[in-house]
Amino acid sequence: MANLDAGLAQDLMDTAAALADAARVATLAHFRTAGLTADTKETDRFDPVTVADRLSEQRMRAILAQRRPDDGILGEEFGTTSGTSGLTWVLDPIDGTRGYLSGTPTWGVLISVADAAGPIYGIIDQPYIGERFEGGLGRTEVNGPMGRHHLATRPARPLSEAILFTTFPEVGLPAEGAAFRRVAAQARLVRYGMDCYAYALIAAGQIDLVIESGLKAYDVQAPIAVIEAAGGIVTDWQGNPCPNGGQVLAAANREIHAAALALLNA
User: Fold this and answer.
1) Whole-model pTM over 0.90
2) Which of 10, 125, 189, 235 is buried most, with the most CB atoms less than 10 Å from its CB?
3) Which domains does the chain have, with CATH numbers?
4) How many CA atoms lie within 13 A of 251 on its CB side?
């Protein structure tokens, strides 16, 4: 299904745009509102979910039921819906709910469509800023407050000049944290807490690396599509494809990817 005809490709991109538009309305209806609360999905740590997470996914699913009823769906909040077309929509209605709950504009809506091999098109949308990153099916662009621009990742540079992001300073299990710190010790600048927006910054040519662990398919499939369309590379920590998440290494180019990979496995 990799070679889609132009009509189907356009319909998929139009459908993804409709999903992102609906998710913007749903998420902004509750962002920075008084009294916004969250439940937690886990008992041993705070893993929040809000009314906006659920509303955002519900509205996207309603659009897919109308426009693409034969496609499958994998969503963070409402699980898997089987399809017959060979295509699956992978939805994270709010990636970075902790940031959303805190009022920071670093969360986003992740939308991708995948075939059996992995994501073929993706959107990283930041509703509050009004910034949308797209990649795949011949398109690679960002549209936002500064206009519409082509996306391209940074060219190769030494790791000593790199900007590295991750969401949580502890980066998973102790051994994973130690591996991350080997890379961080060589980087010029390390920043934390950006969730999906860090992946968008790789595609935009602003940063060099994102290293994370413990991710799910809905966390990574849209970033994979956007970053790879912009010229970057996303793998697991062993250099293999990672459409199902787990340990993720996203890089602006193959040279810096190789340098980070060597240190992760030192």
Assistant:
1) yes
2) 125
3) 6-150 (3.30.540.10), 159-264 (3.40.190.80)
4) 23
